[in-house]
Amino acid sequence: MTCWEGNNVSQRHPSSPLPDDENVVWHSHVVSRRERERLHGHQGVVIWFTGLSGSGKSTLAGALEQALHRLGVSTYLLDGDNVRHGLCRDLGFTDDDRRENIRRVGEVAKLMVDAGLVVLTAFISPHRAERKMVQDLLDDGQFIEVFVDTPLATCEARDPKGLYKKARAGELRNFTGIDSVYEAPDAPDVHLDGEQLVTNLTDQLLDLLRRRAIINL
Questions:
Q1: How many Å apart are CA 151 and CA 56, to the nearest integer?
Q2: What is the mean pLDDT of the chain?
Q3: In the sheet where 190-193 sits, what is the strand order?
C-alpha cells in the first residue's frame, strides 16, 4: 500500500451528556499514565483506522497489532463488529446510533490509553464530527487517524461479508457508501492506498510510530 502522511436512537442510552451531579466526582489514580507507559516501555496512543466496509481496516489493524505484539508492545484492538456483540449491542445504524457507538468506543479507548496501551480501532466511523469527538477526548499526539482509502468498486468486489450485495438489493438500509454517506478525512495523519500490500503498509506505520517516538523498538 502507498502511504501519505499528512430509525430513532434507542431509548436505552442517552442522546446527550448527563447533567452535572455533585455526587459524581473524578478520582485521580495513584499510578499515573506516565508511570504505566514507563512500565510498558512505550507511549499510550489510539491508532484510528477509518474507511468503507471492505477497505481493509480490520485486516490492516490486525497485521499492525501482530507486528507490535512481536516487538513487545502492549496493544489492544477494538473492532467495529466485535463491540456490537456486547458494549454496543443495543445500537442500530442510524446516524444517532452510530454517533453513540463511536462515543462509547472513544471513551473505552481513552481508558486504555490511560493504561498505557497502544489501542488500534477499526471502525467505518463515517462522519468527521464523530472522529473529531474521539480526538478531543485525548491529549495532543494521542490520536492517529489512518484513512484506508479504497475505491467503492474494490470494496464491493471484495464484499467479505456480503453486505454490499444486500445493500444493493435493498435488504440492508443505511449502509455506508450505498445509501449512507462516508465523509473522508480532510487531513488524516496517514492516508493509505487500500489496494496496495498490507505488509508494506504495516512497515510504513511502524516507521511512523518510531518517528513520533511512540515506540522505540
A1: 11
A2: 87
A3: 3-4, 190-193, 143-149, 45-50, 118-122, 75-79
- The residues assigned a catalytic role are 125
- 51-60 pLDDT per residue, tens: 999 999 999 9
Helix ranges restricted to H, the chain: 33-40, 57-70, 80-83, 95-114, 128-137, 152-158, 163-168, 198-211
Instruction: Decide which of 3.40.50.300, 1.10.390.10, 3.90.1150.10, 3.30.160.20 is the CATH code for 31-211.
Output: 3.40.50.300
User: Counting Cβ atoms within 10 Å, is residue 176 exposed (0-12), middle (13-18) or buried (19+)?
Assistant: buried
pLDDT band at 17 (very low <50, low <70, confident <90, very high): low
pLDDT at residue 9, as a whole number: 33
User: Does the pLDDT value for residue 15 go beyond 60?
Assistant: no
